Amino acid sequence: MIELCRDAGLPAPGFELRQGSFVLTLWRDWLTDDVVAGLNLNERQRKAIAHIKRHGRITNNEFQTAFEVAKRTASLDLAGLVSAGLLERVGSTGKGVFYRLGKGAAKGQKGQTGPDSEGATNRQ
Fold this sequence. Notes:
Layout: H1 2-7, E1 14-18, E2 21-25, H2 33-38, H3 43-55, H4 60-67, H5 71-83, E3 87-90, E4 98-101
Antiparallel strand pairs: 1-2, 3-4
């Protein structure tokens, strides 16, 4: 099921045990081209999201190589996507760290998401 979701460009499903019941959560493709176009992202960040949709993840090193940028630029671009809730960071430090699609954008006031939301701005 995880592989099928990844092949479809969707985040991995959520599996949890909740009050004695097994709960499976399937996530929709909330990062459509229209949504991404409406966010305050630079070109590298938009292309990174497309890369993750195809490959399931990206590392800082892959980002540096793909977009020919310094490590600091890659880190800032990826951190901006994480703080906006678009990506989630897996791992804490070192070569094992990678980024995958988040489950949903950070919510702004009154539960709104999108380019006007507080969390959906690009921090460079």
